[in-house]
Amino acid sequence: MEIYHPESFMAVEHEDVTVHFYRDIERLKSSWLEISPEDKDIIEEFCKDIKQLQSFFMPAGKPMDMMNIVEKIKFLLSMKDAGMIMKKYNKVTFKEFANRFKHPALRMAIYSFMPEGEYSVSSIPTRNGDMGSFR
User: Mean pLDDT throughout 32-43?
Assistant: First the structure.
C-alpha cells in the first residue's frame, strides 16, 4: 500500500491568504516570511526551536527506572536543549502564541491549529506527526 505524504499537511485560509503548514521547516519558514516579513523574528525563532526538537531522540532502550546512574545522567544531559524549549512553550497557549504574530492570517492559522481550549504550544508532538514532526 502506498502512503502519500503531502508537502503541506494543513492549510488555513484567511481573507484571501493561505497559510500552509509544511513538513519541511525551511519551506514553512519561507512561505510564512513571504506572507508576513514583519513577523520575521518570531517565525525564525519558532522554526529554529522546531529544528532543535527534531534533533532530539527519546531513547527507547530502557525505562528510566531500569537505568543506572550513568545512563540517567547521559539521558538528562541529552534532554537539556529539548527541555529548555519545552519549558519555553509549556506555559504559552496557542492563543497567546498566535497573538505574537502581526499578520492576521498567521494569527488565525496558529490559533486554529488545535481545537478550542487552553492547549499549550508544547503539546504539539515533535516526531512522526504533522506539524509536530514539523516536517
Answer: 96
Q: Out of 37-46, 65-74, 103-112, pick the least confident.
A: 65-74
Q: Where are the alpha helices (DSSP H) in the chain?
A: 25-35, 40-54, 69-78, 80-90, 94-98, 104-111, 130-133
End-to-end Cα separation, the chain, in angstroms: 22
In terms of Cα–Cα distance, which of 48, 79, 49, 54 is closest to 133?
54
Cell numbers given for 82: 529539548
If you average pLDDT over residues 57-63, what whole number do you get? 67
Angle between helices 69-78 and 80-90 in degrees, nearest 10: 50
Count CB atoms within 10 A of the CB of residue 116: 9
31-35, 81-85, 87-91: segment of lowest average pLDDT? 81-85
109: nearest Cα among 100, 118, 24, 91: 100
pLDDT at site 101: 95
**Contact yes or no for 17/88 (Cβ under 8 A):** no
